[in-house]
Amino acid sequence: MTGREGDKRLGIKTTGREDVASAHYAPYEPTPYPVLERLAQSGWLGREHRLLDYGCGKGRVVFYLAAAVGCQATGIDQSPRLIREALENRQACRAGDRVRLACCLAEQYPIGDENAFFFFNPFSSTVFEAVLRRLRQSWYANPRQMLLLCYYPSPEYIQCLEGCPEIRRLGSIDCSDLFRRNPRERIEVYALPEPIRP
């Protein structure tokens, strides 16, 4: 499914790439629909999840997954312009009632009851480390399994994840056959595991 086809099905406009990057934040580049289809069919996400997409841009990930798996989804982005476009998409999307959007820095977002988190290398490893600290704080304050889904993970992201003793790698969703047989075309699945209760 192409970007235009996927957008048409959802009634949204998310195609294109936009260079609104800063020193620590990446430019807008939407996650390909075939990757989102693979994630939706993987069984990792379901209606019980409350997904947070870091660097949501125009909202493709949150709208698609809210529609495909029925989860509640929140998208955050540091760009007011991209969030305005995502808000316009929410008005048009059939799954818009299950989506919340916020304009803020990732390292400042107050994590609530979210239990799944999507990353497509939206920011530097410095910001990623700060986000992981906030996720761990939320996990300690409200113990629950928290999935971390990293598409096309950078070596720096993997190093940060592997360096956190609380975080466990659960597996990987291979997407290398979708494009050009690049081994980085995958979604790495990590988690802060649900504590064992006595």
Helix and strand topology:
Elements: H1 3-10, H2 33-41, E1 50-54, H3 60-69, E2 72-77, H4 80-92, E3 99-103, E4 116-119, H5 125-141, E5 146-151, H6 155-162, E6 168-174, E7 186-192
Parallel strand pairs: 1-2, 1-4, 2-3, 4-5
Antiparallel strand pairs: 5-7, 6-7
Helix pairs in contact: 2-3, 5-6
Descriptive notes:
The chain starts with a helix and ends in a 6-residue tail after the last strand. It is built from 6 helices and 7 strands. It has a 7-stranded mixed β-sheet, with helices on both faces. The longest helix has 17 residues, at 125-141. The chain has helices at 3-10, 33-41, 60-69, 80-92, 125-141, 155-162; strands spanning 50-54, 72-77, 99-103, 116-119, 146-151, 168-174, 186-192. Strand 4 (116-119), helix 5 (125-141) and strand 5 (146-151) form a beta-alpha-beta unit. The radius of gyration is 16 Å and the shape is globular. The protein has 198 residues and is of the alpha/beta class. The mean pLDDT is 92.
Widest sheet: strand ordering = 3-2-1-4-5-7-6
State which percent range the strand residues make up. 15-25%
Are there runs of 5+ residues with pLDDT below 50, and where? none
How much helix is in the residues?
A: 25-40%
What string gives the helices and strands in order? Answer: HHEHEHEEHEHEE
Count the beta strands.
7
Q: From the alpha-carbon coordinates, what is the Rg to the nearest angstrom?
A: 16 Å
Structural class: alpha/beta
Query: Total number of helical segments?
Result: 6
Describe the main β-sheet briefly.
7 strands, mixed
